[in-house]
Here is the input.
Amino acid sequence: MSLTTIAAPSAAPQTSSARAGRLGADWNRLWAAGAVSMFGDGVYLAAMPLLAASKSTDPRAVALVAASAGVPWLLFALASGTLVDRLDRRRLILGAQSAQLLLVVALALLSAADAVTIGMLCVLAFCLSSAETVFREASEALLPAVVPSQHLITANSRQQASMFIAEDSLGPAAGAALFAVSASVPFGVDAVTFAVSLVLIARIRRRPEFRVQAVRQPLRVEVLTGLRWLRGNRMIRTLVGMAALANFTTFMTLSTLVLFAKEVLHLGEVGYGLLVSGIALGGVVGSLVSQRVVARLGLRTTLLLVPFCSSLVVLSVGLFGRNPVQVGLLVAVSSLGLSLWNVVSYTLRQIHVPSELLGRVGGAARTISYGVGPLGALAGGLLAHRWGLAAPWIVAGVLRLLLSLPALPVLFAHRFPSPASGADPSSSGDHGRPAAPSLFREFWRGARRARHAVATTPAAISRRRAGDSRGALRRRGSRQHRPTR
Here is the structure.
C-alpha cells in the first residue's frame, strides 16, 4: 500500500502498445488474475459473515470473526513487505494464493460436514488474511514493473473498477445466493477462482524488476528502513494516517452490517448480498471516472473533498438509514469517494516510493492503515451491543469528520505532480520542502475549481439558459406594460 531525495520507481519499458493505451499482455494477465481472485474474495466476504451469523447472533461474536481477518495486517504486513523486496514478486503471489486455495478447500469441507464453530472461523479468517498480506504487497509492487509510469493512473483505475465489480458487486451477490443453497458451495467456488488465478499469474513472463534487492540485510534493519522512509515523507505519511482513519471507521460499520441488514432493514440472505453489491455501484462509477475527475479537479481537490463528503454520508446512514434503497444509495456514494481516493493514493505512492522500497514502505503503510481494522471491528461490535446497530455508523461519521481536519494543512501545502505526466515528483518531497503556497489562496483555488466543474455540467448550463430566457421575457413584459407619462 504503500527518506533522502524521492525517486520515481523503475517503470516497465514503454512499448508502442503502451503508448497507444494498451498496457500489454503481462498487464492483462495480472489484471485478469486479480479480477478472478477478487470475485472469489467477494463470494467469501459475503458467505463468511453469513456463516458466522448462522452460528451466533451475538454482535460481539460476529465482529470477532471480522476482527480476526484484520489482525494479520498488524502482525505480518511489515515482514511481508520485506519479503516482497527480497524475493521474486511473481513467485510470492503464486505461493500466497496456493496457501489460500488449500485453506478455502478446508473451509468448504468443514462447512459441508457442519463442523464449523466460531473459533474455527476466527482461525481460518486469520490464516487466509495472513496469506493475503503477501499477495497484496507483491501485487502492488509488481504493477509498476509491468506498466509504464505514465499509465499508472489508468492501470490503478482499472484495477479499482474490477475490484468493485468483482469483489464488491458480483461476488457478494453470488456468495449470498450460493450460501442460500448450501453453506459449503460459496467456499468451493472461491477455491476454483484461486486455481484460475494461479494459472494466469504463472503465465506472466519473468523480469529482472520482479526482484529488485541485490544485497540482503538483517530483517530488522530492512523493516526499519521502510518505517524511516515513511516517517520522513510528510505527504505519504499523511495519506497513510487518513487511510487508517477510514479503515478504522469502515471496519466499525461493516463488522455488524449483516445484523444491521437483517434487524434494521429487515433483509434476508439474498437481500443482504444485494445490499453489499449495491455498495459496489458507486465504486465502479468512481473507478471509471477517476481519470476525468482527477484531470478536472486536480489531485489536491480530490483528496480534500473525499474524506469530508464520505463522513457526512456515513453519518446519514446512522441517523436516517432505515430503508434498504436509501441505505444502498448512501453507501454507493461513499464507495464512489473511496474508489477515487484509492486511485489517487495508490498512484502517488507508486510514483513517490523507490522501486526497491515499494514492498517495505507498502508493508509499513498497511501495518498502520489495515492494523487498526480489528480495533474498529471490535469497537463496532461493542457499540452495537450497547447502543444499537445504528450507533457504529453515527460514531464512525463523527470520528471521520473530526479527525480528517489535521490533514488539511499538509494537503494544501504539498506541491502535487501533474496526474498525467508520470514525472518524478522529487520536487514535492519533504527533505527540503517546497515553499508552501498561501493556505487561503489554495483553498479558494480549489473551491473555484470545484464550483466551475459543477457549473459546467450540461444540467447546470440548461438551467442557466432557461433562467436567461425567463428573465428576458419578464423584462420584455415590463417594458410593454410601463405607464406613459
User: Anything to note?
Assistant: The radius of gyration is 24 Å.
